[in-house]
Structure formats: C-alpha cells, structure tokens
Amino acid sequence: AQTVTQSQPEMSVQEAETVTLSCTYDTSESDYYLFWYKQPPSRQMILVIRQEAYKQQNATENRFSVNFQKAAKSFSLKISDSQLGDAAMYFCAYKNSGYALNFGKGTSLLVTP
Amino acid sequence: EAGVVQSPRYKIIEKKQPVAFWCNPISGHNTLYWYRQNLGQGPELLIRYENEEAVDDSQLPKDRFSAERLKGVDSTLKIQPAELGDSAVYLCASSLGTEVEKLFFGSGTQLSVL
Known about the structure:
The complex is a heterodimer. Chain A is mostly beta strands. Chain A is 0% helix and 51% strand. Chain A has strands spanning 3-5, 10-14, 19-21, 24-26, 33-39, 46-52, 60-61, 64-69, 74-79, 88-95, 102-103, 107-112. In chain A, strands 2, 5, 6, 10, 11 and 12 form a 6-stranded mixed beta sheet that branches. In chain A, strands 3-9-8-7 form a 4-stranded antiparallel beta sheet, with no helix packed on it. In chain A, strands 1-4 form a two-stranded antiparallel ribbon. In chain A, strand 8 (64-69) and strand 9 (74-79) form a beta hairpin. Chain A is globular and about 40 Å long. The termini of chain A are far apart. Chain B is an all-beta fold. Chain B is built from no helices and 11 strands. Chain B has strands at 5-7, 10-13, 19-24, 31-37, 44-50, 53-56, 65-68, 75-79, 88-95, 104-105, 109-113. In chain B, strand 9 (88-95) and strand 10 (104-105) form a beta hairpin. At the A-B interface, strand 6, strand 10 and strand 11 of A face strand 5 and strand 9 of B.
C-alpha cells in the first residue's frame, strides 16, 4: 500500500513571506499523481495543485508551486507571498492508476500579520 | 452552480443510536465518494459509487455502516448503531467519471458520539 508522510504537524509563516510544506511518499509504481489539498475551517477540501509523475516540470499555480523529486519520492509545496487566507490544514495526497486518493496526516499552516 | 451539498453539518448522538448523513453531488457527476476523516488525520475512502452501483466498498465496516444511492444522484450513509470511535468528519465528494484530478468535496458532517 502507498503511504504519504507529512512530517510537519504545524508550520508558521509571516504574511508576505514564503513557506515550504514537506511531503514524502512511498510507492513502487512509476505512473501516479500527487496533489496538495487545502482544508480551511469550513472543512471543504480544495485542490491547490497537482503533479503528474511523468512530467519533469514542476507544477505552478499562481503563488503555489511544488518541488517534485521523483527519485527521492518527495513532493513539497511552496507558498510565496503568504496571505492570511492561506491559513488552513494542507494535505498531501497520492493517486496511482486507480481512483483512490491516499492522504497524509496534514500540516496546519498559521499565517501571522 | 451549487457544489457538493451535505447535511447535516453537525450531529451529536449518544452511542448505540442510529445516524444518517446525506449528500447531493454536483449535477452530472456520476461518481460519488464517501470519506471519513478522523481527528488529526487525512480523509480515508469508505465507499465509491459509479451511478447507483457501489463499485468499491471494501473499506466500509459493513456490520454497522450502510450506504445507498438509489437513483444514481444523491446518497445516504448510515451508521447503526453508532460507537464512540465513529466520531469523525464524514466527507462526500463527486467527480465526472473517475477523474479524481477533478474531485469536488462537500463541507462534511461532523459527528460526535457521546
């Protein structure tokens, strides 16, 4: 079974600064997808960014970018110019050729003024 | 367009009582998922429907949990009887086909079993 590990239970960043959230995963597959989801207090899981394993180029969505290191099985999320609205739980998730998402335990991000 | 709608938002019950959660997916989404999210954890899949058929219920504790999606649209997840360990957030999600990359989640039902 695939496992997803988020080693940082909590992170803090000042407004306008940059923060990186870590994620590692374990798999024997070569074709898979990786995701970062944001879960604010409303509890709704919101897709932030995704990465296909066959793509070497790191995905970017506005202020959010990833550092995908396939050999190291690492998938970190960088948030630039942090905003108060970025405060939430962030979950890393893995999906192989099937349909099930495997989530990590999450990282709580606090943004301070 | 409305997103995935779930109700109730909160539910508090005593152990051994029954409880039901309702989900209405995004219009046109034929695939529906129920996830359970324990405190301090990520969501875990309980059951997946394609239209009205439960195509994967391998993680659903069948002794006390049941689910239905009779007309292939909205769905109900039931627990009977509830146990203390069932306290969690129950999330519903939907997608068009099996494109998990385009998965939309509801806001969940937070269940507290006392």
